[in-house]
Design goal:
Elements: H1 3-29, E1 38-40, E2 43-44, H2 50-61, E3 68-73, E4 76-81, E5 87-89, H3 91-99, H4 107-120, E6 122-124, E7 128-130, H5 132-146, E8 154-158, E9 161-165, E10 170-173, H6 175-185, E11 192-193, E12 196-199, H7 205-208, E13 213-221, H8 227-240, E14 244-245, E15 250-252, H9 253-257, E16 268-273, E17 276-281, H10 285-297, E18 302-305, E19 332-334, E20 341-347, E21 351-358, E22 364-376, E23 380-384, E24 393-397, E25 402-413, E26 416-428, E27 433-437, H11 441-454
Parallel strand pairs: 1-6, 3-11, 23-27
Antiparallel strand pairs: 1-2, 3-4, 5-7, 8-9, 10-12, 13-21, 14-20, 15-19, 16-17, 18-19, 20-21, 22-25, 24-27, 25-26
Helix pairs in contact: 2-3, 8-10
Amino acid sequence: MNIKNIDRKIILLIILFITIIISIIGFTLSKDKIYKGIRVNGIDIGNLNRNEALEKLKNNLDNSLKEIVILKYQNNFYKEEYKNIGISYDYYNAVENAYNVGRRGNVFIRIKDIIKVRFLGYNVNMDYICDDSKLYFYFNKLAKDVNKECKNAEIKLENNRFVITSEVLGRKMDKKLLKQRILNSLEHKKIIDIPIRVLKPDITKKDLEPIEDKLGGFRTYFNVNNNDRVSNIKLSSNFIDSNIILRGDVFSFNKATGPRDKEAGYKEAKVIINGELVPDVGGGVCQVSTTLYNAILLSGLEVVERHHHSIPSTYVQKGRDATVAYNYLDFKFKNNLDYPIYIHSKVSSNSINIDIYGKKEGNKKYEIKTKVLEIIKAKTESSIDKNLRPSEKVIDQKGRNGYKVETIRIIYENGRVKSKEQLSNDYYKPKKYIIRQGPEVGKNRKDKKLKNTSS
């Protein structure tokens, strides 16, 4: 064996032994310090404790967070410091990761890691952290300038012809993607394009173009002298006028008209509650829902929800009324046709007329027929009131007959009956008469004679 080779091996073993001894000593002496050779983002923090390392990193890197981030949308630029929008370095996590180098595994693994970082070095890449509350507060300020609501196409009936206003596309800032772009820009500073999502409206001009035919309509009349009731009819009519119902959509009367309260402009007029006419806010609205109900029946549309009054209405046949009460009873129908429909509701001096427009398919017509199946006679409850004169009558409660009514829709095609559809079987409850009457004349005289005899 070559003596020189032996000497070289001995020297290497001695160096290795000395290095191990130094590492063990370093390991022992550096209990609370980061080992030599460790850097964070290229900054040497070896032989520092964690607090010292934190301070050094902040002193070196905090200034970079004062740099300006530049956002751009179209020709508009928005500038702000990174730190002001909640972006900062994750100092604490980086220092912990650096401190843990050479402190994981058994003693031999630790010594190996300590030797490795001492001679080869080791760099910890520091992540960024984001205070979302600050960042999204800034985004919300930007959104006021960047975002734009989309707008549905509109259609109006003017001078017996339809005028269509085109839809308007909207835009919305993609906050999640913008956040990622800002975080990425910390490594590669550049102007950031604000990402935008295009908002498409539900109704387009193309959707509305087929609306040109009157499908059906209905008119009911009211007393012009009942000013508050007429005011309520006009208000709810305005709410449903110009509504567009797309194919397959369901129209809710309550949703369209909103709460019937004084804040919405409704006034007090008589309504039917438990079979009695009593004053309440919103009286008269049911005439609008009833008129709409008949209009959609004559247009071939599908009824989803409908309720009849507890007593017959004066402005429509029995079996053809539709009562509503907000958050309780609704009138709903579905557009079961292949094209959108349009509601045109108009109040004249003494009537409300509602027409449904869309696109006619085939030569169909609709007829509504009602049939009174049974009349339930009102009962009479009478009692003798000695305080009344003989043959005198007092009606304490007016009664009324009850009814069972069947309503059907007849569908004609090319002038012939195609089918019949049963719509409802309504029951209007009777109300009894309550009468007081004076005692009979003969009975009074007989009672008087008996009284005189006994005395």
